[in-house]
Specification:
Layout (H helix, E strand, L loop, with lengths): L12 H22 L4 H31 L5 H32 L6 H23 L3
C-alpha cells in the first residue's frame, strides 16, 4: 500500500475511476480501430481490461467509505463489506496481474529478439509483483 502498511494498494475513488476510465477508453479505441482478428489485439484487450479491473479494485474501498459517510449506504453493511474486500483483494489483485502478465508474455506482434525480450521482461516483472502480493496472504 502507498501508506506502507503492506496491504493492497488503495487510492481515492476518483483516481481509481479515472484510471479505469482511461484504460477502458484505450480498450474501446483498440476495439474500434483494430478489432480482434489478430491474437495480439486480443491479448492487448486482456491487458487493458485487466488494468480496468485493477483500478476499480484500487479505488473501491474509498468509494464505499465515501458512500457510507454521505449516507448512500448503511454504515454497518459498508464496514462488513470493506472487511471482506480487504481479505479477498490480495488474491483478486494477484489474479488480475497474472492475467496481464501472461497476456504480455504470450502475445507477439514484434518478433524481433529485442521486442520479444521486452515483452517477456515486462510480463515477468508483473508476474513477480503478483507473486509478491499472493505470498502476503499465504
Amino acid at each position: 500500500a502507498v501508506s506502507g502498511n503492506g496491504g493492497p494498494l488503495r487510492v481515492h475513488w476518483v483516481y481509481g475511476a479515472l484510471g479505469a476510465a482511461i484504460n477502458f477508453i484505450i480498450f474501446l479505441g483498440l476495439t474500434i480501430n483494430h478489432g480482434y482478428a489478430r491474437v495480439y489485439n486480443q491479448m492487448h484487450a486482456v491487458i487493458d481490461l485487466g488494468q480496468v479491473v485493477l483500478f476499480i479494485s484500487f479505488g473501491m474501498e474509498s468509494a464505499v467509505s465515501s458512500a457510507s459517510r454521505h449516507g448512500f449506504c448503511d454504515t454497518r453493511r459498508a464496514h462488513r463489506w470493506l472487511a471482506s474486500a480487504a481479505r479477498i483483494r490480495p488474491l483478486h489483485d494477484a489474479a488480475a496481474l497474472v492475467a496481464i502478465a501472461l497476456a504480455t508474455i504470450k502475445h507477439q506482434h514484434d518478433r524481433q529478439p529485442i521486442g520479444v525480450f521486452f515483452h517477456e521482461k515486462a510480463g515477468v516483472f508483473v508476474a513477480a509483483a503478483a507473486a509478491l502480493i499472493f505470498t502476503s496472504i499465504v
